[in-house]
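Q: What would this complex look like in 3D?
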Amino acid sequence: MFKGILKEQTIQVGIGFVFIVVLLGTFILPEWMSNNFMYGLSRGLAVLGLMILWRTNLVSFGHALYYGFGAYAVAMAQKYLGVTDVFLRIIIAITAAGILGFVLGFILRRYREIFFAMLSLAFSMVLYGLLAKAEFLGSTDGMSISPSTMFGFELGRFGLFYFIGFVVILSLIFAHAYLRSSLGHLTTAIMDNEIRVEYLGYSVEKAIHIKYVISACLAGGAGGLMAAALGQVDPDSMVLWSVSGELVFVTIMAGLGNILAPFVGAIFFEFIRTYAYEFAPQAWQMIIGGTLLAIIFFLPGGLWSLFQKINPFKKEKK
Amino acid sequence: MQFLITVLLDGLIYASYLFIVSLGLTITFGVMKILNVAHGGFFAWGAYLASISIIYLGDNEYNSFLYYFAIFLSAIIVGLFFGYIIERFILRKMYNEDIHLIVLATFGLFWILEDLILHVFGVDPLMPYYPAMELGGIELGGIFQGVYSLTLAGLAIIVAFICWYFLKKTKYGKVLQSVIFDREVSVSMGINVTKVYLITFIIGGMLGALGGAYIAPTISVSPGFAIDVVVMSFAVVVIGGMGSVPGALIGSLIVGLVRAFAVHQAPILELFIIYAIMAIVLIIKPEGLFAPPKPRKI
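A: Here is my prediction, written as structure tokens for the whole assembly.
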């Protein structure tokens, strides 16, 4: 599955991109700007998960469920088990979201189109309802997360940034390996015609289930990284339906063309949000909404289609 | 007994208000097959426009009949103005797109409408309590209840009746049903579907705005208060069946009563239980409890 993957152009460009972002963020840019890079990289994981789902034309309007679940798993592990190690944190977040995705996947894999979107929305709001009202889970105030450590040493902001870059590179490799495997190709085929895929002897539901779990794991990982980066988890900014909407928005803004697109899109989104909030605190939602409409109307391929036009690495078609 | 009456009253009042809002949503979905997230924007705009007019009327001690006039007028204005602009210039260009893209576009519009409110009405919460204060309250089975909230139930019944009459007894209702049933055949029969879409969207928007405008005197109208309503009316519409008018009625009754029960008995479950019902309905009967039967097409 992973054979020769490092020789693939997408992965090489991706690793280069992450290196540049991490170097920019840690050495060159001021802190407020580099925070955008850090959050963008982390949330990009969740967007990558959504993009993988979208390739089968399944759009989850409740992906904040896994995003928030991963984040709260980190918070719970710290509260009850005292876990602050960054490796353990990300593993806990991914596993928790993966298990939840696996269980819910049995139900969701039978759904398509708007029903898939609505059922995932319902699941995410169930979690939101619990978190927002339960005192021992911090209700709407959420919970604070102590700084991450690695093997007992405090990691610091730079260390965390490197770690996020590391996780992102791993997920890029994994996602690319998945998408180029026959299972990954299958899911695009499912979008075209499910019945034909069944006739070929594959199980559509199983393929979608696997895809869903991968997507959930990525979103959970994003939540875990965000929890560590922000030092705070709360339901309104992690689990509410508008967060899911934002993630879907970034997916469409980034475009579905490449596994790198979600990270570019997520970083871009963080910048719009920060700048819009900075210069027009009462109009930032309007700016984001306007950007969304503009992208839908004028740039249907997302930001990535801009890159494709000027891509210096573009291979000539044989 | 007293507890039961409280729950029933609370539940019915909340259900009436949810019904008016989600009726707009379900009509828009039924006819145009659009999940309109911007519905929350209509709701908030209706509430704000009604609030400032009521506060203006109340401060200058106008006839109290004018309050209700103001409420309906603001709903109509908001529905006409934003409904026309949004349908005519944005949604109309998107009907051939993927359904998810349309949802996203309305989501963007929701954001825009929310922020426009801040610019037009300011960020301070408004409290247009005059109509509610004027009608006072009565005692029902040992429970003190504001009369204004009770009129909400009356309004819901009137709206439901008008809707039923319009759909079942008038020519336009039949046209609407044929468009719901099959868009292309309706076009070939000479129905101006573009116009039907526009009018439907405007009426849906008006209903959303009416819900907001009528509830405004009983709450404090502040920025961002529509965000819960959107997803709550989504739950109602999904439970009842997307595109079904009786479904919206039953769905809002279920959500209203269950929520009232949870608020009084187990506040921690208030939101959880509503969305749990939504999820369970979707799992057992994805089309919703009262979904209109789907026409079989070749």
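A: To summarize the key features: The beta strands of chain A are 143-144, 149-150, 153-154, 232-233. The mean pLDDT of chain A is 83.
Q: Very helpful, thank you.
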